[in-house]
Amino acid sequence: MQIISSLLLLGGALFLATYGPQLIAACTAYVGEVVERGLLLMLPPMDILLIAAPQQAAPMIQPFMQRLLGLTLSGRESGVAVANSLTLIGRLLLQSPSAFEQLIGTAAAADIGASGAATGPEVLLVSLGSLWCEAFDSIAQPLARKLSACALATLIGLPVKALLNLLPIMLNHITSVWLEVESSGADEPTTERGEMFYAQGLWSSNSSSSGWDHGVGFGDGGLLLGQSLTASEEAQGEAERRQVLRDAEPLKHVKISRLLADKLAAAAAVHGQDFSAAMAALDPAIGQQLQAVMAAAAQAGR
After folding, report:
1. What is the C-alpha to C-alpha distance for residues 184 and 191, in angstroms, rounded to an integer?
2. Helical H segments across the chain, by residue range
3. What angle do CA 93, 208, 76 make, to 5 degrees?
4. Mean pLDDT lowest among 51-55, 71-75, 103-107, 123-127
5. Which residues pair with 217 in a beta bridge?
6. pTM of the full structure
7. Cβ(49)–Cβ(57) below 8 Å
8. What is the DSSP letter of 202?
9. How far apart are CA 187 and CA 194, in angstroms?
10. Which of 276, 221, 274, 210 has its CA nearest to residue 243?
11. Residue 29 has pLDDT above 80, yes or no
12. What percent of the chain has pLDDT over 90?
């Protein structure tokens, strides 16, 4: 997968147009058929595609994402596999909402996640949101936590009334990550601390698979964290391409506070009194955290 990541970085859209269908088909065939380590190795190249060529890649990786979604919701995978899979699903949601909508619609039609009964898109979204909340504390990388907080905020804004039942726990996770990364200034890309934050990348593992070193993480493109470019025999050109990929990280331009404020406003417009009732029922501690986030959003909007 390191070779594939390197080819994607080098060839970009041309490589994807020429070999993308074959690559996606091969990776899709392996989803659910490999051990945990194999699954984890397949995710970073898909993420590269969604950053480097979102319009071209988002529809192309639909078969892969459909199998990944089914595997994630199956309850058969480890916490590490679920957490990392949700990260890629979140990337699709944020990068290409229309492709995410297509994924959910196709998965619902195929009864992915069903237990003998028909599963509509709304039921599937609630199942996904519930799983995301349960798995949230297993998401280790700070950047991945920011991505998942943004993904949960985006789910809040969808016109799915049943998601309001998850509002307290979703807001708890989102506001906690806001405190970790935005309120603290950890994700400010113009600072040295922010550069470190984004350089760590999305991908991590604490895999239970035999032969897998605990605590080893993945940087962008699947390069093992701590593995130098010299040790991996990568040329300076690839190092520069990886830096370009890091510079293109869309999350650098996203404020959790502003996104959450926008999605809460959307939910209020769609759900009306039901949304107001759900907000009124929030635990006071979550309400206080939310007030701080909304104040930050107002400040950012000035």
Report:
1. 12
2. 2-30, 36-52, 54-60, 62-73, 79-95, 97-109, 121-135, 142-156, 167-177, 192-199, 236-247, 256-271, 273-280, 284-300
3. 55
4. 51-55
5. 204
6. 0.88
7. yes
8. S
9. 5
10. 221
11. yes
12. 69
Tokens 């999350």: give the residue.
251
CB neighbours (10 Å) of residue 274?
13
Per-residue confidence band for 232, with pLDDT thresholds at 50, 70 and 90 = low
Q: To which residue do tokens 């809460």 refer?
A: 264
Other beta carbons less than 10 A from residue 211's beta carbon = 7
- Tokens read off for 257: 């506070």
- 188, two tokens: 């400010």
pLDDT, one tens digit per residue, over 112-135 is: 764 545 578 999 999 999 999 999
Rg (CA), the chain: 19
Check if the beta carbon of residue 111 is closer than 8 Å to that of residue 69. Answer: no
- DSSP track, 54-103: HHHHHHHTHHHHHHHHHHHHTT-S-HHHHHHHHHHHHHHHHH-HHHHHHH
